[in-house]
Amino acid sequence: MKQIVIIITVLILFSCSAFKSSNPRIKNSDKIGDTTIQDTFDFERDRENFQMEIYTRLDGLLSDDIRDIKLDENKVWLLCTNGIIVFNKDTGRIVNYAYSNKAPGFNSFLHDGEYVYLSAERGIYGFNKIDKKYHTIVYDVTIVPSLVEYGRIFLGADRRGNIYLFKEKNLFNVTNVGHPLDLVRGFDDDIYFADQNAVYKMTGDLKLEKILAHGPNHITDFLIKDEIFFVANHSLIQYLPGDRKAVNIVAFHEKIFITFLFYSEEKEGLYIGTTQGMGYYDMIEKEYIPLLTQHKVKEAFINCLKEEDNILWIGTKTSGFVKYTALPSKIVYK
To answer: What's the pTM?
Structure first.
């Protein structure tokens, strides 16, 4: 009889702890200690003290393949290959704006007031936030990921080396740089391009100046903050212009590929997305810290990320999007 009472008591305690959250979307919420000296929010140093909510097609998303994210006051704008999803932060309401024809393969977007511009596998498109309609700006070309602001207009590029200048429904100019392009990025009001083995800075006359060459290795992403960080093969590499050498700072297993880089202005570090999760590179301590792994999100192929206060908004390839919230850490002085 005594053993039965003990077993029942254990089961009750387990059920109370296992179902402490009233939100069915919360996948992990760790208990906060009672003794508090100071509250801090730190994704990196206290990475087990977090709350994670996962939203998928079962919650109403147009697709589970989230390619890009933009934050706009109380809304999160999500891009999938066949349309736009708007998530209301306050109410949790999800609104889908599907592209009506054959999916153009959207891969990134850029917001400008009432307009959203989208790069795609088959062109450049616009979306009017007022009438909720799509229109075509450039058709039947493969636009490389990312669109950037260029003065008072916008810029995109295709894989054949053409650079397009446009605004709203108007295409103003097309120029060819003479070789294929794979990426375009904007950093600190400057515009940069990359092909498989080099990074270029665009000059005022729409010419490209080579600032980094990396032999036969395939450059798949890059980021410029005082120094150049780029992805080649399975490694994150830092280029030191003064020494003219490249140094591997994070290297993954041959089956893991880096999918994106995101620089945190607040933390002055790099978030690194991969085909099997996400981590943070502390640029001061020179340390890589895993954050989101496959045991937390099934098939954690990370596409994109945006940072907002103590929240990371994360887009995945097959598991929808994740709201990753750091909870207050309790620091106790002995």
So the answer is: 0.82
